[in-house]
Amino acid sequence: MARPVKDLEPGSVYITISIPRSLAPSASMPTTTPTPTPIYGRNPNDSREVDIATYETHCAQDLAQEEFNWGLYFHRAERDGIWYNLRRQEEDIRHRLCPTLFSLHRHHVTASPRLQCQVVGLIGVLRVPRILCDELTWYLDWLARESYGTATRTFIWVTSMYLRTWHHIVRMLNNPNLAYGSQFDVNLFLREALNFSYENAEYAVGGQLPRPIIKSAYGTVLEIPGQHVLKQSLVLAQQHALAQPKPVSGSSS
What we know:
By secondary structure, this protein is an alpha+beta fold. The chain has six helices and seven strands, in the order ββαββαββαααβα. It has one domain. Strands 1-7-6-2-3-4-5 form a seven-stranded mixed β-sheet. α3 crosses α4. It is globular and about 40 Å long.
């Protein structure tokens, strides 16, 4: 089961869940003002009937809009994190300037996302030894640039980012004992995430800080003994990466 945690942990990857900026509390909008939104007052049990295929395709076909914005936050150390988010492009901009549905935004942050007014909460999905933080930063930067152009829903994008990152780390360490990713069930994870989101959305709309954190029941902690072996694996993986063709740069800000 998912469980609440008190603080962000170094070397951890979190999925961030936010309400649309138009609904986020601000100084110009009193928190007592009623806000019409499909999130407000939602019954957490509604997530039991979620169909992952419908959840993705309805937005891709413009039949529905995402009720939450999903992002990925990598907490490297205290006051040191990288936050990846997608923002939906306006239709005229997509046709004239950029063919992608979303634009990619990468931010180096020194303040916790828990203190952002639009954030509903964070879900911890992956933790790696600190020695891997530089490697993971490089990989997440590359993966975000390569994957955002085909994204049709931010939930699917961040889930794919997590799973591909997990598999990258496992392959790099060449440790078959860590082979857990095949047990991941995206439907169960979506239900877990939506339950958490529906329970806390009203507090987010009301401006309550800081936002909560939970550790996902479907997350992974890689606690690997033997620093000498780990360093050797990391060096070999980096040498292999340097020998590969350089990725094509994407747009980010």
